[in-house]
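An instance noted here:
***
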Amino acid sequence: MIEGVSKKIGIVDVGGGTRGIYGAGILDWCMDHGISFDYGIGVSAGSANLVSFQAGQRGRNVRFYDDYAFRKDYMSFRNLVRDGSYVDLKYIYGTLSNAGGEDPVDYEAFMANPADLDIVATDARTGKATYFNKKDIQKDRYEFLMASSCVPVACRPWPVGKRVYYDGGISDPIPFRRAFDAGCEKVVVILTRPKDTPRKPGKDPWFAKVLKKRYPASARALASRAETYNASLAEAKALEAEGRLLILAPDSIEGLKTLSQDHGKLEELYRKGQEDAAAIPAFLTGP
């Protein structure tokens, strides 16, 4: 928290593949300046960002975007041919992140942090959002992060219990409502695309056709993802005008797509995140 702030404060990180390095910059800046949040909710890579943040592991997220993401074990056509998933979520949130791995989550510090955390995933069969909670995360079992980050078509749906899941961004791409429902009075929202640029459908309709036969509900949600995102963004902007919400978004993403690999552009996006985070204290201490 920040001195002089008594309100319950929340933070939302929407992820966005390797563009999540923007959120990593914001969260590292917060750690550098002693700013914490009572509640967090993450989507896809944003959920992983918040786990490292709540564990106090400054710089950990950057390594995943600007180092490990360039490895074939992380994402490659080799993975797609071998396992049916371009992105190897088990490598990212298992091999690298488990105790004894190259860059493990400090699970004890994460759980000792009193801040709550929700993780958004999309139930593949219903196309609806599912919210996993921090208290259900077990050491070296980060399947909720895998489920939340499971990009449709690029990955097979991820199993948790008897259900299978896709990326949370399909069903609840900017989950600030959940933060307010949790009792937050002010909410910081991290986007990874310019806030005044509407999301376009892009390849979503084509990907939806691929999913339609096996997961028709998720296919419908994916086909309308841009519409859902833009409607949520419009509502977020209205709340920002009321002073209840702060949107942090890069002025440009330098042409980076969800799974782009470009050291220079990623590092620039991280720098933008650190610069933009400077708006947080005034927002939190304002009326």
Summary: The beta strands are 9-13, 39-43, 116-123, 129-133, 158-160, 163-167, 186-190, 245-248. The mean pLDDT is 96. The two ends are 16 Å apart (CA to CA).
